């Protein structure tokens, strides 16, 4: 049945009821008209399907499913194809389990390393987050299952998340926090978008008409339905009017009744309700019409993909003297509880009831013939931060007897979870002490990290190698062995900067905020945009990642040396594997703007490609850059604007390791509209074509010289410079005070109006 016709047959009560859940995980059915219920389920890195006694925080058990690498790890892959494959697999699992929408992916920006939910999020960079999310969405939806892109938007802390207001200017929102959603919405067209709990500049996300309707729908063309985060609805009728279509979970009829009353008393147009119902029914029908009842949830097959994915995501941070890869026959000590019981996912609503969990030590024991000389020592207890002298001594002894010690360390479950934020960036005290003790006993030490966001590493100089495994999913143990022993060449790169200490983070002074207000005073300077612009030393830069092979970029060619911002720039790069192993290189393309009138980051990521190369093989990689690669958000227009000037295209292996540069002259076609007033300075006026001729009589009357010849040197060089600078920063109205009585306010206003009529200031 046609959706509009179906809605026309529904009662007011049925329509209002359809705008909230039937329970925790299902939309309402309308049996009278054949409208089925649709199940949604938590994600985004696995299917957390609950039926009975459902809860949103993962306390009650869900079905056995496959836990893929969390967002923190998946982003480090820099691999669009991998994200598509994971999404495709999740989509098939949903079909097999009758789930119509999986709640994810999550693209909120990693503003601070402290956010308790960072493990779910992709990156500090909106372009990377958006590209990876788009591919995961396309993978899921290729199976005719919907996604719910979340949490829209500016949900960057767990502290007071249901009441705090994220306070930021329009440029910051557009360039950083909205941008992560924008590309994914436009490219992948998710079936649903989930609004966040928080307020945005004082207005709850669920009631924010500007973001839900003006931006999301009218500007970006989103045509699915907006669902609330669970419990994020604050005032149902205004929320509905703002663009919040589906409230989850059920309100037990209370908010349905509010909608009915509002329509009946005329405070809510029934057409607004009809529109929301149409949006919901469209996606319910879409899933129902494309149900694949032949789909099979093959947990073993999907576990194998989880292992492959985890190997692609791991980041080799350090590898002095090429300590890695290890030999399987070498005498090794695996140290740390995470070797036997890995931390592979975060806590909260995304917690998966994994079908199996592989640990590195468990697999070594199962395959002892393949790994004949590996011992194990627990080293620490994850249930406490306290140092155990016995456990530490056993670990030190094992390290002394081994050629190489491999310490499996990281953050316990209690350190990172939905619902609260971290208070520091340190490892637990017992783990930090263990690393110190083991490295003193054996300098040939590798540290394998299990964490959802950066940690401080005061011990970094004392270890030879560091492998960042992040939260790698249920197959992480096998993937760790693959990388440690060289079956897989590490190819992950950091999707976030690791600062040396928490205090270096740009949001440090303002994170968490005061009461229910959090000010984003760092503006667009998030992550590497801040660290690189300030030339601040960091532990590891954005985009960093080592390999067991080596690559060289032989050339970078631009298809033009000048362009208008309406043109497209093509960049071609030749990359060669100069090492002895097949490997994958992540090429990162940054754009550095000219030093113009707008304060901007020194460079920004605008392209990336992951390419696999055999030893000696060369491939050509092509990037295309359009207007947005050069633009900033001009709040005066308001729109995206490109400043005319010379931009530098940077090819890097990280944001700090730039391999090749080239320049392109870009002409902006958006006029910077100005309104000249009596407060406009002479320096600004002189930048306007044609204004100098109009201003010349006033400049002469100002009289910066002391003799009739007009020779400014008669004043002395320093005085002349002072007078010139005073004139540069003097507003037009200053001519009245300093014009020697020759200029009045009417004269100055006439000049302002004359300049405003110049073509350069016309729309």
From TrEMBL:
SUPFAM superfamilies reported for this sequence: (Trans)glycosidases (SSF51445), Beta-D-glucan exohydrolase, C-terminal domain (SSF52279)
GO molecular function, one term: beta-glucosidase activity
One record GO biological process: carbohydrate metabolic process
Residues of the Fibronectin type III-like domain: 585-655
InterPro entries named in the record: Cellulose_deg_GH3, Fn3-like, GH, Glyco_hydro_3_AS, Glyco_hydro_3_C, Glyco_hydro_3_C_sf, Glyco_hydro_3_N, Glyco_hydro_3_N_sf
tRNA-binding is among the record's keywords: no
Record carries keyword NAD: no
Assigned keywords, A-Z: Carbohydrate metabolism, Glycosidase, Hydrolase
Domain of life where this protein originates: Bacteria
Family: Belongs to the glycosyl hydrolase 3 family.
This protein's name: Glycoside hydrolase family 3 C-terminal domain-containing protein
Organism encoding this protein: Caproicibacterium amylolyticum
